[in-house]
Each structure stands twice: as C-alpha cells, then as structure tokens.
C-alpha cells in the first residue's frame, strides 16, 4: 500500500474517534475502510436542573472510499466519498466527504475541491474560545491547497455559498514552520455571514509560538479578531501555557488567557481564564484532573478516569462541579459513567 498516499489523501477526521479501521478493499489505487463507534453512559446532574439519564451515545459507522490514480510519475488524481450511518435521532445514511483532487511531486502539493475542511483559525474564534480549530463553516464547496515539506506547511482554503440565512463565504490561510526546538503557527481567516439583520464579516488573525525545552514546553498565543456589520466588536486574546512531562506516566499543565472584547453598542468585557491540569497513566488506567477559573464568573473542577480493556473497548467515569460567583446562581454538578466500543 502506498503510505505516502494514505497520509495525504485520507484526512484524520475520517477516522476520528476510532482506534482502528477495517480495510474492506485495499490496493495500490483504492482503499475502502470501515470504522465506527458506539457507547453507553449514565449521566446525573445536580443543581438548578436535576436529572438522571441512561442513553446510548455515539452510535455511528463510517465507510470511507479513497481513490488514487497515478497520471504520471509526478501527478496523482485523488477522489473520496464517505458514507455515514448514524443511530441518533432518525436512522439515516448520508454521503459526505466527497472531493476531487490532484497531488503533485509525491504529495508535496495537494489541491482538493469539495466537502473538505477549511484550513482553520489560529487563536480566538467568535463562535467559541480555543486554539487551532476547524473553521466554523459548512465545507460543502471548499477549494483547498496544501504545500508540505520538511520545514514548512502552508494551507489555504476558500468557499462560496449562495446568500441566505446562516450561509457564508469563507477564506482561511495558515502556515506552520519550525527550526530546532521552536515552532511558529500564523494564520488569518475571514467569514462573511448573511443573517436576517444583514451581513456580518468576521476576521481572525493569530500567531502561536511553541518552544520545546524537554521535558518542558512553553506556548504563547496572540490573536486579534473583529466583527463588522449588524453586530460590531473587536477582540484581543493573549494566552500563555506550560506543559511539564514529569516522567513517562505524569504530565502537568497550566495556562492563563486574557480576552478583551470591545463592543460598539455595549459595555466592554475582560475575560481572564486560568487553568491547571494533570494526567497520570498507570498501566491500563488514565486519570485526569483539571481546574478552570474564569475570574468573577465561575470555577470548574473536573475529574476523569478511564480504563482501557483493549484499544477498542474502554470504560470511563467523570465528575464535574461548577460554582458561580453570582450569589443567586446555584452550583451545578455532573456525574457520568460509561463505556465505548470502537472499530
């Protein structure tokens, strides 16, 4: 099997949540793989809203068809389609992940068009706080170009959609480069969204620097964003993080982020978030503990434990408590036990 092709043509997202995928058909030109996940969990919530729920979760199976055809020594034609079978809500089979592409110089240059993800945002997002994430636009007609060599990855994508509520045009550009123990990520993304009150344009620019002083890794993020149109605001995010790999079994982490938001027609906000965490691995057990404090808003404590019977079958439990600064807002708790089977 051509491993270079698999690394380029089969996005990791196709197998997200699955430790292994079963190859139904495999040849030098075609790969058909079946993967999926199903789980069960019991959730108990306390606080203002109390409930106790048993449910089957994540019922899904994915059939991936990925094709590569060698045009000549330096050009390959790529194609893919993904069939998703879900058991949440109405049972249905959807054909997604369809794209056509070309790969040049052994995968150094790749062009794809169709249902592929955008290059992503770097820094903050107006839809949710986070680091690098998939650009929040339905990628049904995305043109994406990726260049990769030993020291640089350049990614650019663009999509256009017909005007309508929640429809959007989007562009994203991102580059990652490294030398010695330092890695830099820079990016810019823009989304023009059509809503009932008019058009909104979101832009996000950011840079992330990561320095590896093994066993310590330092990460710094700076990002600015703006929304113009029916709603106007300007955002600035500054974040610092440190990870310490104490030994093969224990990892400690801490981060602090400040996000300033200026609104045109409302009071400005200043969000400060501090987080500390630890992960400990003991044989088949993995334990996680995280404490997140949002200044003047809330404090959240999360404990998780997972036992791996095999790579495909795992049992887990978690307990989360959230306390709020507002005197009249009741603390909340969530307790979950469950198991997951992947294939």
From TrEMBL:
It is found in: Cell outer membrane. Pfam families: Porin_4. It is a multi-pass membrane protein. Coiled coil: none annotated. Keywords: Membrane, Signal. InterPro entries: Gram-neg_bact_OMP, Gram_neg_porin_domain, Porin_dom_sf. Residues 1-21 form the signal peptide. One of its GO terms (molecular function) is porin activity. GO terms for cellular component: cell outer membrane. Residues 12-282 form the Porin domain. Its main location: membrane. PANTHER family: OUTER MEMBRANE PORIN F-RELATED (PTHR34501:SF2), PROTEIN YDDL-RELATED (PTHR34501). This is Porin domain-containing protein. It comes from Veronia nyctiphanis. The lineage of its organism: Bacteria, Pseudomonadati, Pseudomonadota, Gammaproteobacteria, Vibrionales.
